[in-house]
Design goal:
The protein is α/β, with parallel strands linked by helices and about 525 residues long. It has one domain: Amidase signature (AS) domain (Amidase signature (AS) enzymes). It is about 40% helix and about 15% strand. The chain contains 20 helices and 15 strands. It has helices spanning about 5-30, 40-50, 55-70, 80-95, 140-145, 195-200, 220-225, 260-270, 280, 320-335, 350, 355, 360-375, 385-395, 395-400, 400-405, 410-415, 420-445, 460-465, 495-505, and strands at about 30, 35, 75-80, 110, 150-155, 175, 180, 210-215, 230, 250-255, 305, 340, 450-455, 470-475, 480-485. The strands form 3 sheets. It has an 11-stranded mixed sheet, with helices on both faces. Helix 3 (about 55-70) packs antiparallel against helix 4 (about 80-95) and helix 13 crosses helix 18. The chain is globular, with a radius of gyration of 23 Å. Keywords: Signal. InterPro entries: Amidase_dom, AS_sf. Pfam families: Amidase. It comes from Ziziphus jujuba (Chinese jujube).
């Protein structure tokens, strides 16, 4: 028998469920279109079908940032002009404005807090020492993004000063941004230093972002946050207007949830920039028609892929990960890949030791030299040299947690005096290690790419200015992601994209963070 009391109870229950569903729909759906996990192609289709506008897209991301950023600390600042820029993009699209069909037109993008923007956003490397500084112009890659119609949504958090303040700073931590959290397991490392760029994309706080890498700073967070990260050949993307660490190794690259999305951003940011001479040399690598043409489902067929077991598959790889990679190797074979196993990179242990290789010696001197040049060119800045930054941290130890984390790397860099005999010898040794190691292996074995787990190969790619692509490869027993990396010689992005895209389409490993659903 159904009583009036039970009817009222059931009615209240139904209303409660509808309220919950309504809130969920508000968060997940806009005009019947699901933004979460949507690709750039999905977003543009929704634009064309009038299911979505750039304003609604930006509003969605701002709501998600308000909901999740207090937990994840992935974003330092949101652009106060983001909604204005979204409205501008909507008007341009409605008027069929030239360029409004660009893959990035009307799409919000986050850039790492190293990348200069001439707007209301700060560029601080996560440090209070640079808060309030004013850059002379947009960074080269930001200018290209704006030309493509992208909306700069804000600045992504990062490991402060890309870990070059102190080796004691936890990956993903900065004084301004706090501790970035891995959205798959909050207690796990998000890696760094492009931590916020990867966290934001993984957690659907934005569709795509820009990170930077000197050695592992993009590939590592991409691996740990189950996103695609492309580390381009050094000079393929401009470093002008980006806080420098080592122009010999620094590179700017995209992060997305799919290879296709990352490649769309790559197409937008590569190319000549007269403010960065390295782009003149590297422009020869850019294929006519860009990189989108290499998104081929059968891109693995006939490719020669090398596997170096020692040390990449013999240390730090759990049994679940090992089995996942063996399964992936079988998939590669089935897709027509030619795997050459058990290869060796000459002097690999010296390469992986940044002290023995000379990498640390070179970068310390380069960092001081080029940071001082960058700081002197700022329109407004509280600091004008590395010495000023060190003094700032000593003056405000509580603000920067200097007493807890220190600044011993800063002090070591400050003690250098330009590129002297010791630094020149270190750079020559790095060139020799690359030439006799990775370059020789790839050339002699006629490899299209080297495959390795996660970011462990980063130093090999870093010291030679070589490109790499991380693709999601699985999750460990705790649910923490790990990626697979495809690396190649300078200018080999077309082959790497073919391999990475084909692998992604054959495996489709990525899943969104389970604990963050509304």
């Amino acid at each position: 028998m159904v009583t009036k009391t039970s009817q009222r109870f059931h009615l209240r229950l139904i209303l409660l469920v509808l309220t919950i569903l309504s809130k969920s729909q508000t968060i997940n759906l806009v005009g019947g279109f699901s933004i979460r996990e949507a690709t750039l192609d999905d977003l543009h289709l929704a634009f064309r079908q009038n299911q979505l506008t750039s304003r609604k897209l930006v509003e969605f991301y701002i709501r998600e940032i308000n909901r999740l950023n207090p937990i994840l600390n992935a974003i330092i600042e949101v652009n106060p002009d983001a909604l204005y820029l979204a409205d501008k993009a909507d008007k341009e699209r409605k008027a069929n404005f030239p360029g409004s069909l660009s893959k990035l037109h009307g799409i919000p993008i986050l850039v790492k807090d190293l990348i200069g923007t001439k707007d209301k956003l700060n560029t601080t490397a996560g440090s209070f020492a640079l808060l309030g500084s004013v850059v002379p112009r947009d960074a080269g890659v930001v200018s290209k993004l704006r030309n493509a119609g992208a909306i700069i949504l804000g600045k992504a958090s990062m490991t402060e000063w890309a870990s070059l303040r102190s080796l004691n700073i936890p990956l993903g931590w900065s004084a301004r941004g706090g501790q970035g959290k891995n959205p798959y397991l909050l207690s796990a490392t998000p890696c760094g230093s492009s931590s916020g760029s990867a966290i934001s994309v993984a957690a659907n706080l934005v569709s795509v972002s820009l990170g930077t890498e000197t050695d592992g700073s993009l590939l590592c967070p991409a691996s740990y946050n189950s996103v695609v990260g492309i580390k381009p050949t050094v000079g393929l993307t401009s470093r002008a207007g980006v806080i420098p660490f080592s122009p010999r190794q620094d590179t700017i690259g995209p992060i997305g949830r799919t290879v296709s999305d990352a490649v769309s951003v790559l197409d937008a940011i590569v190319g000549l920039d007269y403010n960065d001479q390295a782009t003149t040399r590297a422009s020869k690598y850019i294929p006519p028609g860009g990189y989108k043409q290499f998104l081929k489902v059968d891109g693995l067929k006939g490719k020669r892929l090398g596997i170096v077991r020692d040390p990449f598959f013999t240390s730090g790889t759990g049994s679940l990960q090992s089995q996942a990679f063996e399964n992936h190797f079988q998939t590669l074979r089935e897709k027509g890949e030619i795997l050459i196993d058990n290869l060796e990179i000459a002097n690999i242990y010296e390469i992986l030791n940044i002290t023995a290789s000379g990498e640390a010696t070179a970068i310390l001197a380069e960092f001081k030299l080029y940071l001082n040049q960058y700081l002197k060119k700022l329109v407004v800045s509280p600091v004008r040299s590395l010495a000023d930054v060190i003094a700032f941290n000593q003056r405000y130890p509580d603000l920067e947690l200097t007493e807890e984390y220190g600044q011993e790397v800063f002090l070591a860099a400050q003690a250098t005096n330009g590129i002297g005999d010791m630094e020149k010898a270190a750079i020559l040794n790095l060139e020799r290690l690359s030439r006799e190691g990775f370059e020789k292996l790839v050339t002699e074995k006629n490899l299209d790419a080297l495959v390795s787990p996660g970011p462990d190969v980063s130093p090999v790619l870093a010291i030679g200015g070589f490109p790499g692509i991380n693709v999601p490869a699985g999750y460990d027993d705790d649910g923490v992601p790990f990626g697979i990396n495809f690396g190649g010689l300078k200018g080999s992005e077309p082959k790497l994209i073919e391999v990475a895209y084909s692998f992604e389409q054959a495996t489709k490993v990525r899943k969104q963070p389970p604990t963050l659903q509304p």
